[in-house]
Specification:
By secondary structure, the chain is α/β, with parallel strands linked by helices. The chain has helices at residues 18-25, 34-47, 65-73, 83-91, 108-117, 127-140, 178-187, 208-226, 254-265, 278-281, 314-318, 408-412, and strands spanning 4-7, 10-13, 16-17, 29-33, 53-58, 77-80, 99-101, 121-124, 144-151, 173-174, 191-197, 233-235, 271-274, 285-296, 301-305, 324-326, 336-342, 351-359, 366-369, 391-395, 398-403.
Length: 421
C-alpha cells in the first residue's frame, strides 16, 4: 500500500494534488510520501516485535537527509556503505550507535571517520579489511565492533546485477572459511567480535533463499560459539522485494519475513538486525514527468518525456519495469494507445518502456512513474548536462522541496579551466 491515490480524477500524494507540486517546481521531479515511508518502516519493526532488534534502513536506496531524518526520528538505524553516507546519516541526526558500516572497499580514512564519530559495527568483508580495521582501531586506541559478512553461496534468484550471496559474487567471505577468519579476528588487537552478517541480494520475491541462508547462519552461530566467540548479534541484511507491476502477484509481506526469522534464528537469543531499503522507500516515491512530443515512427508511436535515463536509470540498467500512469485519471472506457516511452537523451538505452499500453496522451500531459522511490534519485546523474531533478517530500497537506534543481550556471561553474587555456 502507498499514499498515492486518485481523488476526483486527479492523482494525489497524501493530501496534495500532484499537479500542484508540478506547477510549483516544474517537471521532472521526485516526490516522496512521509506516511508511506513510516508505514513501511513500522511493518518491519512490528514484524520483529518481542525480539531484541534494530531495523537499519539501507540508505543507498534513497539518501536525502529529509528521508533519513523521518526514519531516524521513528527509531530506525542506518546501513551505510561509504563515508558520505555515514556523514549524511549523522547530519540527519542519527547517532553513531545506530549506524552499521557495510561495503567491500572500506578505506582507512572511512574506518577512522566512523571510529572517531561513533559506529554500531563494521560488517567486515575480507581478511585484508579486517587487518586494516585492526591497525586503524589500534592506532586510535579504540575497539572496533565487527561482524564478518559470510557468503552462504545461496542463489537469491534475482537479477544478476543485484545478487550478492553466490560464491562468484564479490561480497563476503566464503562460509566454509568463516571459522578461520573469526579465529583471526579474535587474535587481532582493537577488534571485538559481536556477531555474523549475511546479505544475499535485492528484490527477492521468494522467502526460500532467505530460509536457506539463515539456516546456514544458525548452524554457523552454534559452531562459532563452540569455538569461544561471543556471537550475540545477527545482521540478516535486506533484500525483500516490492511489487513493481500492479497485478495480482505480490512479494512476501514483512510479517511473513519476520516469521521466517523467528523460525530460523529466533531460538539463538541473538539481537537481530535487518537492513531493508527498497521496500521502505520504493513505493514511497514517484517520478513525475511531462510529455514533450508524441512522435509517429515506423510501426510505432513514441511518447517523448522530459525525464530521461539520467533521472531514472533502472530501466536502462536492469530492464526494470515501472508502472507509468497519467496524473489525470482516465475515465472508464477511455481510448487506449501503445507507446514506446522514451526520454530526450542521445542514447537508444534512454527508453523507459516498449510497446506499453496507455491511455491516449498528448504533449503537455503529466505522467507519474510508480515505485521510483528506491534507486531513483540516488543513481541519477547530470549526463548531457541535464540538471539533477528536484526531490519533494509530502506530509499530509504540506510539501517541501528537499533537493532543489540546480541552475545551469551552478552546474557549469563547478568546472575549472586551467590557466594555460
Amino acid at each position: 500500500m502507498d499514499h498515492f491515490l486518485y481523488r476526483d480524477g486527479a492523482l494525489f500524494a497524501e493530501d496534495v494534488p500532484m499537479s500542484e507540486i508540478a506547477a510549483a517546481v516544474g517537471t521532472p521531479f521526485y516526490v516522496y510520501s512521509t506516511a508511506t515511508l513510516l508505514r513501511h518502516y513500522h511493518l518491519f519493526d512490528d514484524a520483529l516485535s518481542g525480539m531484541d532488534h534494530l531495523v537499519c534502513y539501507a540508505m543507498k536506496a534513497a539518501s536525502n537527509q529529509a528521508i533519513l531524518r523521518t526514519l531516524g526520528d521513528a527509531g530506525a538505524g542506518m546501513d551505510v556503505v561509504s563515508a558520505g553516507e555515514y556523514l549524511r546519516a549523522r547530519a540527519a541526526g542519527v547517532p553513531g550507535e545506530r549506524i552499521v558500516f557495510s561495503g567491500v572497499g572500506k578505506t582507512a580514512a572511512e574506518i577512522r571517520l566512523a571510529l572517531e564519530g561513533g559506529i554500531r559495527q563494521f560488517n567486515v568483508e575480507s581478511e585484508p579489511e579486517l587487518e586494516l580495521l585492526s591497525a586503524v582501531a589500534h592506532s586510535l586506541g579504540k575497539t572496533a565492533p565487527i561482524t564478518v559478512r559470510v557468503n552462504p553461496d545461496v542463489d537469491a534468484k534475482t537479477h544478476a546485477k543485484i545478487a550478492t550471496g553466490k560464491s562468484e559474487n564479490k561480497f563476503g567471505i566464503p562460509i566454509a572459511r568463516a571459522r578461520q577468519v573469526y579465529a583471526m579476528a579474535a587474535r587481532l588487537p582493537g577488534i571485538e567480535v559481536v556477531g555474523i552478517d549475511v546479505h544475499i541480494g535485492s528484490q527477492l520475491t521468494d522467502l526460500a533463499p532467505f530460509e536457506l541462508a539463515y539456516t546456514k547462519v544458525a548452524d554457523l552461530t552454534a559452531i562459532l560459539r563452540a569455538d569461544g566467540h561471543d556471537i550475540r548479534r545477527l545482521d540478516l541484511g535486506g533484500g525483500l522485494g516490492i511489487p513493481y507491476v500492479r497485478d495480482n502477484s505480490a512479494p512476501p509481506l514483512p510479517s511473513d519475513y519476520g516469521a521466517l526469522i523467528r523460525r530460523t534464528v529466533g531460538h539463538l537469543g541473538c539481537e537481530i538486525e535487518i537492513e531493508p531499503g527498497r521496500l521502505i522507500a520504493g513505493n514511497a516515491g514517484m517520478m513525475v514527468s511531462s510529455v514533450i512530443y508524441l512522435k509517429s515512427g515506423e510501426g510505432r508511436d513514441f511518447l517523448i518525456l522530459d525525464a530521461a535515463m539520467n533521472d531514472l536509470i533502472r530501466p536502462a540498467m536492469y530492464d526494470a519495469h515501472h508502472d507509468i500512469v497519467p496524473l489525470i485519471e482516465p475515465p472508464a472506457g477511455a481510448v487506449q494507445a501503445t507507446y514506446d516511452i522514451v526520454g530526450p537523451v542521445c542514447e537508444s538505452g534512454d527508453t523507459f518502456a516498449r510497446q506499453r499500453p496507455m491511455p491516449a496522451l498528448a504533449a503537455g500531459d503529466l505522467v507519474a512513474f510508480r515505485s521510483a522511490g528506491a534507486y531513483g534519485a540516488v543513481m541519477s546523474s547530470e549526463y548531457n548536462t541535464r540538471p539533477l531533478i528536484p526531490e519533494v517530500l509530502v506530509k499530509g497537506d504540506q510539501f517541501a522541496v528537499i533537493r532543489p534543481r540546480p541552475t545551469f550556471d551552478e552546474m557549469i561553474n563547478r568546472d575549472t579551466i586551467p590557466e594555460w587555456l
